[in-house]
Design brief:
The complex is a heterodimer of chains A (114) and B (113).
Chain A: E1 4-5, E2 10-14, E3 19-25, E4 32-38, E5 44-51, E6 56-59, E7 62-67, E8 72-77, E9 86-93, E10 102-104, E11 108-113
Parallel strand pairs in A: 2-11
Antiparallel strand pairs in A: 1-3, 3-8, 4-5, 4-9, 6-7, 7-8, 9-10, 9-11
Chain B: E1 4-7, E2 10-13, E3 19-25, E4 31-38, E5 42-49, E6 56-57, E7 64-67, E8 73-78, E9 87-94, E10 102-104, E11 108-112
Parallel strand pairs in B: 2-11
Antiparallel strand pairs in B: 1-3, 3-8, 4-5, 4-9, 5-6, 7-8, 9-10, 9-11
The chains are: A mainly beta (114), B mainly beta (113).
Chain lengths: 114, 113
């Protein structure tokens, strides 16, 4: 059964620092992996979707990488800003259920201090 | 496009009352989902639908019912609300199972007293 883990659960960094958020999964036979952002009291916003055939995807200061063989994806945030403070979640389709549902990590709560 | 919308945004119910949460999407997506989110528990799937007229149970379906009579709408019903159903409810949609992004609504904050 696919399991998704995000470590650390919380992270606090000074403004301007480059940082990496981690997402690990147990079954490497994945279709894709999606990173989301959730601001307090708000819904989830999709940041990046990386397909299984891709090694990385970039959007602005964000770069997501995927290494299926090691069961790991990372979200790299360059030059962090206070506005990046949010919870970041990763999710991937449940291949045991025909990819109909997403399996979720619990997220990493990021605080960027001015 | 409005994307995924949810009504209402907030609701307070008394134990035993019923209500329906409405989710609508204008992206012609086949798949729609209802989640609940509680502190420390992450997102948990309640029910989902893979097309008009279909529904399926998720991880925590007890106490909830759903209907997908029209492709663009997915309704979540609570027949007899309980305090354990106090939560934030999110609706989401996805075009299909084949490598597409999932989009979320803004959420409904429900309190059952």
């Amino acid at each position: 059964k696919q399991e998704v883990t995000q470590i650390p659960a919380a992270l606090s960094v000074p403004e301007g620092e480059n940082l990496v958020l981690n997402c690990s999964f147990t079954d490497s036979a994945i279709y894709n992996l999606q990173w989301f952002r959730q601001d307090p009291g708000k819904g989830l916003t999709s940041l990046l979707l990386i397909q299984s055939s891709q090694r990385e995807q970039t959007s602005g200061r964000l770069n997501a990488s995927l290494d299926k063989s090691s069961g790991r994806s990372t979200l790299y945030i360059a030059a962090s800003q206070p506005g990046d403070s949010a919870t970041y979640l990763c999710a991937l389709p449940d291949n045991a259920g025909n990819n109909r549902k997403l399996i979720w990590g619990l997220g990493t709560s990021l605080g960027v201090n001015p | 496009n409005a994307g995924v919308t949810q009504t209402p945004k907030f609701r307070v119910l008394k134990t035993g009352q019923s209500m329906t949460l409405l989710c609508a999407q204008d992206m012609n997506h086949e798949y729609m989902y209802w989640y609940r989110q509680d502190p420390g528990m992450g997102l948990r799937l309640i029910h989902y639908s893979v097309g008009e007229g279909t529904t399926a149970k998720g991880e925590v379906p007890d106490g909830y019912n759903v209907s997908r009579l029209k492709k663009q709408n997915f309704l979540l019903g609570l027949e007899s609300a309980a305090p354990s159903q106090t939560s934030v409810y999110f609706c989401a949609s996805r075009l299909d199972a084949l490598g597409n992004e999932q989009y979320f609504g803004p959420g409904t904050r429900l309190t059952v007293t």
